[in-house]
UniProtKB/TrEMBL annotation:
Keywords: Iron, Metal-binding, Signal. Fe cation binds at residue 212. GO terms for molecular function: metal ion binding; thiamine binding; thiamine pyrophosphate binding. GO terms for biological process: thiamine transport. Residues 1-23 form the signal peptide. GO terms for cellular component: outer membrane-bounded periplasmic space. Pfam families: SBP_bac_6 (PF13343). This is ABC transporter substrate-binding protein. Gene3D superfamilies: Periplasmic binding protein-like II (3.40.190.10). It comes from Thioclava dalianensis.
Amino acid sequence: MKQTLRTGLLALSLGISGAAAHADITVYTAGPAGLAKALAADFTKESGIKVNLFQATTGKVMARLKAEQANPQADIVISASWATATSFADQGLLLPYTSPNAATVPDFLKSESYVAEGVAALAIAWNPKSGTNKPTDWADLAKPEYKSLVTMPDPAQSGSAFELVAGLDAAGHDDLFPALAANGMLVAGANKAALTPVLQGAKAAVFGAVDYIAMGAKAKGESIDVAFPTSGTVVAPRPMMILKSTKHADDAKKFIDFVLSDKGQKEVAKVYLMPARTDVEALRPTITELKLLPQSGDAYAKRGEILDNFSKSFGH
């Protein structure tokens, strides 16, 4: 009887420790949904650790994190805005971790507490069937031929659009948004809301399209082309970070390792993002092939001011 009891207690003990080793992790991620699901499924298959996903726009992810401040639910956050990571690090919200798979990630795409999953760039997405000339620079979209034919993601909702507005602001393009507003540019929700009317032919171009989304649509046969502005653009690295409040630090670290593995980075490349690792082949132009605007180091600290100035351009 005692032997049976000891055996039962041992089995129960092993079961509990086994469950703890494979507790679910929760990842909050700003699109793309297909990539998030693929990475989660592959990671679970490889590790046995289930991933609970919350996928939304950067704005909605940040709002949920704020609402849960008293009782954090997320273990890992993946944002479309690099400023999210720098801000969270400054607030002491992140768990320091350097993945061994980050060795070939350039220094400007990693720190002691966050690292890029992949990198997008902001561009003009243009419909060749729109009856307009293909634009080559941002200012082209303020020309009469594009009157009321341009959309833009709302920088208050899209982390990547905010990065572009901040970059143009830092580069001194103060007159660009009033001119676009006067030309009838529509600021339409997050990235998908801005791109859909252009894909449907109701509008001609997206100012500040997330390039990989448009490239993915083109690969599926949609009437869309991508132009990288000659005066320069910004890149939008997608930072991954482990929250200090996590109760599953070891498993969260394994997820970061997986995303930065050969397999994980190839999944990133499949959706036309630039892989964070320089030794994984990209299926699109990389940072070295693009002209970039000067970086704005304090963009997140000035977020309120930048968004206010943007809104005023549109009479809001």
